[in-house]
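[READ THE FOLD]
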Amino acid sequence: MAPPIFFPPRKAASMIVLGWREWLALPDLGVARVRAKVDSGARTSALHVDEQWRFVERGAPWVGFRFTPGRTRRVAIEASAPVLDEREVTDSGGHCNHRVFLRTHLRLAGQEREIEINLTDRRGMLFPMLLGRSAMDGAFMVDPARSFLHGRPPSTLEPRP
């Protein structure tokens, strides 16, 4: 059994505590709010997409996609972004598949930071977004006994600070 990991008091004091599920925004993609499962066991973050397509913009590969961030309001959002990378990802069930990665801004708990996410079909999952540990690194800690600690963001995007 691995020894527990302790953060130095100064480092832990500067980190924001998240619950095991939180509301977040992805302003670059036009997502004002989406429910996310906070999963320190997952290395990368994943966003559910209903459909995705490729195209070239100014000689660079881009991906366009459509997704529905809510469970009750079935309003689809269309977005596009430059392709950062393409990699094989193994899901929690041990299945390996090829995914497109992109870089985007995350807005959570009053903080904004750039993160890497991959696009996948999470249709059977309870949360359209999975927030992995690489997106939380150095800024957030998780309290698995709590949830939605930072409230629900507004339904419209506010300009970047």
